[in-house]
Amino acid sequence: MCRNIKKLRRPGELPSDEELHDAALQFIRKVSGFRVPSQANQDAFDAAVEGVADVTRTLFASLRVRGEQAAV
Hints:
Blueprint: H1 17-32, H2 42-62
Helix pairs in contact: 1-2
């Protein structure tokens, strides 16, 4: 989908909140078509970014990769 979204999964290390936010922001920009939303759409845009970051955080906390120890 987006060639320049960097891979956040690293052996034994969870992504930082900043990395999750930045990846979520990039994803929402891509799917919404807005680099910067209008003032009328800012709240919806920000909520979407936070939601994607939260879901991604949950994903990483739940992943079990063979041969890797849990990072938690």
